[in-house]
Amino acid sequence: MAKSKGTKLIPLGDRVVVQRDEAETTTAGGIVLPDSAKNKPQRGKVIAVGEGHVRRDGKKIALTVKEGDSVLFTSYAGEEIKVGDGEFLLLRESDILATF
């Protein structure tokens, strides 16, 4: 469950809360990048997971990812949200490409 100063963020169903990794601040050659030139990383850490997929017969199937997993996701995946002082990404498990 994502927490930020008393606020809880609990994803529903097959949704996952991810905290995106920080963007690189310098290039390999040592050039400092301004905020406008930084690419948002497509990787992060799973902070919270929903209860799972619901099948047609009503049974729930647990998600493959779990809290603490490091994941790669598509560049336009999910919704960016702010909870308290924290910034998170809320996406579906199907938007996650891999764990590492």
From the alpha-carbon coordinates, what is the Rg to the nearest angstrom? Answer: 15 Å
Which structural class best describes the helix and strand composition? mainly beta
Largest sheet: 6 strands, antiparallel
User: How many distinct beta strands?
Assistant: 10
Low-confidence stretches: none
**Main β-sheet, spatial strand arrangement:** 8-9-3-4-7-10
Mean pLDDT, to the nearest integer, reads 86
- The outline comes out as elongated
- SSE ordering: EEEEEEEEEE
The fraction of residues assigned to DSSP E strands is 35-45%
What's a concise summary of this model?
This protein is mostly beta strands and 100 residues long.
Key phrases:
100 residues, mainly beta, 6-stranded antiparallel β-sheet, two-stranded antiparallel ribbon, 0% helix, elongated
Structure description:
The chain is mostly beta strands and 100 residues long. Helices cover 0% and strands 43% of the residues. It contains no helices and ten strands. The strands form three sheets. It has a six-stranded antiparallel beta sheet, with no helix packed on it. Strands 1-2 form a two-stranded antiparallel sheet. Strands 5-6 form a two-stranded antiparallel sheet. Strand 1 (2-4) and strand 2 form a beta hairpin. The chain is elongated, with a radius of gyration of 15 Å. The two termini are 20 Å apart. The model has no long low-confidence stretch (mean pLDDT 86).
Write the layout of secondary structure elements.
Layout (H helix, E strand, L loop, with lengths): L1 E3 L2 E3 L5 E6 L22 E7 L3 E2 L5 E2 L8 E4 L5 E5 L2 E7 L3 E4 L1
